[in-house]
Specification:
9 helices, Penicillin-binding protein 1, alpha+beta
């Protein structure tokens, strides 16, 4: 028997069909490339993509705008004695989270809470137990100590810094200082810090009436930085703050002290509901002293709004 070999031939695609496929593929890539070029050109020319301003978005990410508060002007009596001025105080903050020390050779958080609390209690008006209780806050990254941890003086700041306590930081803050305490309080008035801007604003008395002169002008700083935090060339714009103007009163501190003491004696003796005293130069009309009862401490706000006998 003879064996037949059956040969299978591969079907050949028509040449025309191959050419059409290649042309369609080239056209597809060409159309895609053309669309991308158009899209890129539109973004480059307009700075917009999907309805968003890309330049504005980039600026929001890398543009830094900050303000520097100016020094508020001083208030003087007629003899040049300071009645109100800005002073630098300090706020105590304790970093309690261990995350702060990650990647660092030295601890950045409070490590020994008992020791830290015991040492801080020698400066703050708080017991070691109260301080330790705040340091044991496991949910917080950092903790503050309320009013007793703010308005710290330079001397108190130095004492705390000499303790070399890990995780303890002191931030400078500007406060208004009235060196004489209860002294022509309603006349001088008070300046309080705006909780949002941090700016000292006159709330009553001379502080409020002459606020536009005392407050000065804010300084500004703006620049664009790269992803590493370096400032881009020719982008830094800085305006230094302008100190506020001083205000000189006709009040004489020596006469004012006498009036304050006289009013205190009258309150103790006669128990009046209200009491006012004004000393004026009859020749010039200048007010040499002014006070009233009840009064208050403008620096602490103690007794503000208090009625006589309370």
């Amino acid at each position: 028997m003879t064996k037949r070999r059956i040969k299978f031939k591969k079907p050949k695609l028509p040449i025309k069909q191959n050419k059409i496929g290649a042309v369609l593929l080239i056209l597809g890539f060409g159309l895609l490339f053309f669309t991308l070029v158009l899209r890129y050109s539109y973004i480059m020319l307009t700075g917009h993509s999907s309805g968003e301003d890309l330049i504005l978005k980039a600026n929001e990410k890398y543009l830094v705008n900050s303000q520097e508060q100016p020094e508020r002007g001083k208030i003087y009596d007629r003899n040049g004695k300071i009645l109100a001025e800005d002073v630098e105080r300090y706020k105590l903050v304790a970093i309690v989270s261990k995350k702060a020390s990650e990647g660092s050779d030295k601890p950045k958080n409070v490590t020994d809470k008992k020791k830290t609390a015991k040492k801080l209690a020698t400066v703050l008006d708080m017991s070691a137990k109260e301080i330790e209780s705040k340091l044991n806050n496991k949910k917080a990254f950092q903790v503050e100590f309320g009013q007793k941890g703010t308005d710290l003086t330079y001397q108190e700041k130095e004492k705390i810094e000499k303790m070399n306590l890990p995780g303890i930081t002191l931030y400078p803050e500007t406060e208004r200082f009235y060196p004489n305490g209860n002294f022509a309080s309603h006349l001088i008035g008070i300046a309080q810090k705006d909780p949002d801007s941090g700016e000292l604003k006159g709330a009553m008395g001379v502080e409020k009436i002459f606020d536009s002169y005392l407050k000065g002008q804010k300084g500004t700083l703006s620049y664009i930085h790269d992803i590493w935090g370096y400032i881009a060339p020719n982008t830094k714009k800085e305006k230094t703050p302008k100190r506020g103007d001083d205000v000189h009163l006709t009040i004489d501190s020596n006469i004012q002290v006498f009036v304050e003491e006289a009013l205190d004696s009258m309150v103790d003796r006669y128990k009046p509901k209200d009491l006012f005293a004004v000393v004026m130069d009859a020749h010039t009309g200048e007010i040499l002293a002014f006070s009233q009862r009840p009064t208050f401490n403008p620096e602490t706000g103690k007794d503000f709004g208090k009625k006589m006998g309370e």
